[in-house]
Amino acid sequence: MEKDYLLKKWLNDALTEEEQSAFDQLEDAAFNKTIVDNARLFKASHFSAPASFESLQERLSAAQTPVKKLSWKRTLLQIASVLVLGFAVYYGFFYNQLTQIQTLAAENTTISLPDTSTVILNADSEISYNKKNWKDTRELQLQGEAFFKVAKGKKFNVKTAEGTVSVLGTQFNVKQRDTYFEVICYEGIVQVTTSNTVKKLVAGDTFRMDAGVQFNGATSDVAPQWIANMSSFKSVRFHQVLDELERQYAISITYKGNKQTQFFTGAFVHDDLKNALQAITAPLGLTYKMEGTTHVILQD
Fold first, then answer.
1. Which of 172, 176, 216, 269 has minimal Cβ neighbours within 10 Å of its Cβ?
2. The pTM of the whole model exceeds 0.85
């Protein structure tokens, strides 16, 4: 007799003796009886009896067919690994095109760019540019301070966190330290673009933004003094002078007095620490003492 026929009659309790004997001979008869017997043990509120042969078939299929469980963690890890690999390839390709030059504290260096433009990089500063694309786009990123002698040609851009300086061929200095941004034009014309202003400077003009406050001024210098181993300041907050002294001598300075934000005008040399300390402390009536060779304490 057909198995399906016997199952239907068994569920309806309508088997004849001959059919019951045939049903008992089925290889999965015991398994079918176990499903029904176990179902009767559940409370009525949680149990729905098999109403038809089709519903029993669904139960049998679920019980006899192994279910392959997917690990969502494994899937996410696989997706993440593909994304990481993609980003690594992209950034690896992009940044490998960049030339990066960085100076340490108490160090400066001169760089010749592909168009014979020259950059003198001050202490603790960095520039980066695309050498391969330089002929089409003369553009570099600056962190810190640098003096530029730009060869004539296409527009030359110096990008910083606070603004962009654009020229065609000239000599100028750019300083970007935290929220301090300064541009001094020594030859030709430069254009300074920030988030809220566009300013053109001719030789002798200076532009400064300190914590968002804009200053315009003038200089009679023909080049920045730091390339001749002297840092000079004109109405600059004293804490910025101390920061520069730390960069030029690779030292740390502790000062807890009340003159941090006082404006300072003066200069210090880069080759004699004691001379430099006297130059910045005497005008403000401060004293200093050395702790070892790399730590200085200033006092009012």
1. 216
2. no
Where a domain ends, among 210, 228, 246? Answer: 228
Facing residues of 181 across strands? 176, 209
Strands 230-237 vs 263-269: parallel, antiparallel or unpaired: antiparallel
Q: pLDDT for 137-179, tens place per residue?
A: 999 999 999 999 999 999 999 999 999 999 999 999 999 999 9
Do 217 and 255 lie in one domain? The reply is: no
d(CA 165, CA 172): 9
What is residue 124's DSSP assignment?
A: T
* 128 assigned to some structural domain: yes
**Whether residues 174 and 256 fall in one domain:** no
pLDDT in tens, 106-116: 999 999 999 99
Beta bridge partners of 119: 111, 148
162 and 262: one domain? no
- In terms of residue numbers, what domain contains 204? 98-228
Q: What contacts 184, CB < 8 A, 6 or more positions away?
A: 172, 173, 201, 205, 206, 207, 219, 221, 224
Domain boundary among 182, 201, 228: 228
Matching residue, tokens 């399906």: 4
- 242: alpha, beta or left? (left if phi > 0; alpha if psi -120 to 50): alpha
